[in-house]
Design brief:
The protein has about 120 residues and is an alpha+beta fold. Helix content is about 35%, strand content about 25%. Strand 1 and strand 2 form a beta hairpin.
Length: about 120
């Protein structure tokens, strides 16, 4: 993952920035999971959830705006913005999943990828 670089900054940096942006807008239990050893389509998953559709929208909007403002990548694809139950932001080397609480509990992505290491993204 660290070998992948965009504009001189490692893409892991941008995934962590997405996690920080989600957390800043009340993303709940935000995690970054390194799935690069088991998936060929991406390296990292950022997973979080909001308490309701309005909060999911705020998290998604803040992730996109924060990365853009910092000179980071834009998502190549966004899915789920209409329903706001599970919004997927595809940045290529990392994917941001923003759920509502019910969908996150149902799909349990963290359990599905439990064998993959988590990235320590929280600032001290």
């Amino acid at each position: 993952m660290d070998a992948l670089v965009e504009d001189g900054v490692g893409l892991r940096h941008w995934a962590v920035a997405a996690a920080v942006a989600a957390d800043a807008h009340r993303g709940v239990d935000t995690v970054v999971i390194d799935v690069g050893d088991v998936l060929v389509v991406t390296e990292l998953f950022v997973i979080t959830h909001g308490g309701n559709a309005r909060q999911v929208r705020a998290i998604v909007d803040n992730v996109e705006e924060s990365l853009k403002t910092a000179g980071g990548p834009s998502p190549s694809y966004v899915e789920g913005r209409q329903g706001l139950q599970w919004v997927l932001l595809d940045y290529g080397a990392f994917i941001v999943h923003v759920f509502d609480a019910e969908r996150r509990s149902f799909y349990k992505l963290e359990q599905l990828w439990a064998d993959c290491p988590e990235v320590d993204w929280r600032l001290p």
